[in-house]
Design goal:
The protein is α+β, with helices and mostly antiparallel strands. The protein contains two helices and nine strands, in the order H-E-E-E-E-E-E-E-E-E-H. It is elongated. The strands form two sheets. Strands 1, 2, 3, 4 and 7 form a five-stranded antiparallel beta sheet that branches. It folds into two domains: about 50 residues; about 100 residues, Macroglobulin (MG2) domain (Immunoglobulin-like, Sandwich), CATH 2.60.40.
Length: about 170
């Protein structure tokens, strides 16, 4: 009887742990529909409203930024704007890209923390903006909950299979 229960417990443990491993590995796949963060501010001289659409990603993975320049009086986007972009951490430049015209920028952050995105010398007018951002790790809590649940089921199945109660000891 104990042999049948032991085999059944091993099969159950194998299934549960295989399923957990599958969920764990799929949870760290890139997510196609990531949440976007919209940031906007007006340049220091008031000529442009700068709108940033940030699609955050995990540390050491591509974060994307869409940069749009809007006429604050009309609300109409101004195209083909030339600008410099820098990303600072602790007042040290991490990235500097000069004479950009693309509305799309891709950035890799090496660690979590506070950063500043500085967009300067817009259209060679000397205007700029500073936009603070907070980079955080993108952990998915469901992975940890599934792991804890699987470990609990595996311990329970192992206890049943061995016929031992892990919480009861002989008292001398």
């Amino acid at each position: 009887m104990y042999n049948v229960v032991g085999v059944a417990a091993v099969i159950l443990i194998s299934i549960v742990l295989s399923f957990t491993l599958f969920l764990f590995s799929s949870a760290f796949q890139p997510i196609s529909a990531q949440e976007q963060i919209r940031l906007h501010t007006v340049t220091d001289q008031g000529t442009f409203r700068v709108e940033l659409i940030w699609t955050p990603n995990d540390i050491r993975r591509a974060n994307t930024f869409e940069i749009h320049f809007i006429d604050p009086d009309t609300g109409i986007e101004i195209e083909d704007i030339k600008y410099d972009i820098s990303i600072y951490r602790d007042n040290r430049a991490q990235i500097q890209r000069l004479d950009q015209a693309s509305t799309f920028q891709e950035v890799f952050f090496e660690e979590a923390g506070s950063y500043e995105i500085r967009i300067d010398d817009i259209e060679d007018l000397g205007e700029g903006v500073v936009i603070p951002i907070q980079v955080t790790p993108e952990f998915q809590s469901k992975v940890f909950l599934l792991f804890i649940a699987a470990a609990g089921i595996a311990l329970f199945a192992a206890r049943v299979a061995s016929g031992n109660n892990l919480f009861r000891h002989l008292i001398n």
